[in-house]
Specification:
alpha/beta; nine-stranded mixed β-sheet; 12 helices; 43% helix; 17% strand; globular
Length: 317
């Protein structure tokens, strides 16, 4: 189809996908109303059976969009796979895509309209939440994740040192900006890193409409406190990665507030490793909820810790 609209690259990373969910996603990609698209699929070294099934799905269900499929020789993780997709994109814009969601038909059309009239480098949207069976759970991510707030303002980089409100599957990003951000900071989820980078280079725009059906299930990488059952796991998956991420951000971007983030991270480490509460208590204003959580919960008996953790994971607390 002849069109003057700029090309958008849909960048889909897959690994051992649930075929039913993948089929739902691919149908929604093929049904996009935006007229100038390409799809690049990159598999992160799934099994031969899974890879062959994925290729068959793409071949059967993508009928209106040019596509190509690549594969990692070794498993490298989703962030490195999205790096490779960023390098391979041909479009003026790039839309990152997970393997288990459903896009509304005019998702890319609406996001492109916003970026076309904006000086920002990236735009994101809200999502409608569905469960593993596709049943609607909520009309907004903010209804199931109480701490998820769509945030605007001049101090976004400082805010984004501690929190991320942009979900990678909802964004449309200027490809030249995405490439300029490479390589991603190791240990920092690609959407969080790209959001921080764009907040420093042009800003972020927000579409308040839910433009995808976001599937929450047990294997989501971004589930609240996913995979944590003990204080040791909490330290390894939450405290230590934050310290390493904050240090890397400070070294790469030199954001003044990132130095404070590093100090807070060290205080969290001292609180866990040496049971030294003083530094974390003095810096609790950085993130009151997280600081109090760690000051209290990391000293709880294990059964009580696990009970409180389950309540947090289910959104009760």
């Amino acid at each position: 189809m002849m069109t003057e609209k700029p090309l958008i690259t849909i960048a889909l990373a897959v690994y051992e996908p649930n075929l039913k969910w993948l089929e739902d996603l691919l149908r929604s990609l093929d049904g996009q109303t935006y007229p100038n698209l390409e799809l690049i699929v990159h598999d992160d070294c799934s099994s031969e059976e899974s890879y062959n099934q994925m290729q068959d799905c793409v071949g059967r269900l993508i009928t209106r969009i040019p596509y190509q499929i690549g594969r990692n020789k070794e498993n490298q993780g989703s962030d490195r796979t999205f790096e490779q997709l960023t390098e391979a994109a041909n479009g003026t814009y790039i839309a990152y895509c997970d393997q288990d969601d459903i896009w509304v038909p005019d998702k890319l059309e609406k996001l492109e309209q916003i970026l076309a009239r904006s000086s920002c480098g990236i735009v994101c949207s809200d999502v409608q939440v569905i469960d593993a069976s596709g049943r609607k759970m909520a009309n907004s991510i903010t209804q199931v994740r109480r701490r998820h707030i769509f945030y605007t303002g001049d101090d976004l980089p400082e805010y984004l040192l501690y929190h991320n409100f942009v979900m990678g599957c909802t964004i449309l990003l200027r490809t030249e900006l995405a490439r300029a951000s490479l390589p991603f900071i190791h240990g920092m989820v690609h959407d969080h890193y790209l959001t921080l980078f764009c907040s420093l280079h042009g800003g972020i725009d927000i579409c308040p409409e839910p433009l995808i059906q976001y599937r929450i299930h047990s294997e989501n990488q971004s589930n609240v406190l996913s995979g944590i059952c003990s204080p040791e796991q909490y330290f390894e998956k939450r405290i230590l990665p934050f310290y390493m991420r904050s240090q890397a951000i400070y070294e790469r971007f030199g954001i003044p507030a990132s130095g404070t983030a590093v100090q807070w991270a060290r205080a969290r480490i001292l609180n866990y490793q040496e049971r030294n509460m003083c530094a974390l208590w003095k810096m609790r204003h950085i993130d009151v909820k997280t600081s109090l959580f760690e000051l209290i919960m990391l000293r709880m008996p294990r059964p009580l810790f696990r009970l409180a953790l389950r309540c947090l994971q289910r959104g009760i607390l």
